[in-house]
Amino acid sequence: ETGVTQSPTHLIKTRGQQVTLRCSSQSGHNTVSWYQQALGQGPQFIFQYYREEENGRGNFPPRFSGLQFPNYSSELNVNALELDDSALYLCASSLAGANEKLFFGSGTQLSVL
Amino acid sequence: AQSVTQLGSHVSVSEGALVLLRCNYSSSVPPYLFWYVQYPNQGLQLLLKYTTGATLVKGINGFEAEFKKSETSFHLTKPSAHMSDAAEYFCAVSAADSWGKLQFGAGTQVVVTP
Question: How many other CB atoms are there within 10 angstroms of residue A74's CB atom?
């Protein structure tokens, strides 16, 4: 048990819709990173939030956006869903710092039909 | 920029046999290297990491990995496989100033046979 919770666990949407995924960080963690894991692939870094500001972004289009709240929980928003957005979305929380361990949630499985 | 290559998408080992999972990386800066394990319907769990110092790193569940700069490798081993080791394993790399921003390999599925 990592203390990182994600909701919902499963979600089905249709192409063109918008979706919001939520992540509750482990207590005291000020950094959250989001990853997309397509079927049969490794996780791909989407972006990171540190103290409510975006702190780095991977190769994802602007329709992927996020928020981090004062309690360090976070949201991932995806607009104009495409079929290729179907994936497991993972969030990971940590303290800031090169030696700090990432704690991953169990993910949200998003299916876009 | 960093990238990771894991050799072999599927590995089958007998219970009690050596587990060897191969990982090669490329990085323009000194890398931080990680091995994660993922069980079905679960998130990722850190097995071990190399940041600086000793190049042989010991992790949880009897796993260890050796950082070999000359070979740009970070292979994962376990002397004796257990049925509970059946899972997917991911090698990952990051730069020292990019905490939390990992570049993962495609993963290796490990099957353990009795």
Answer: 25
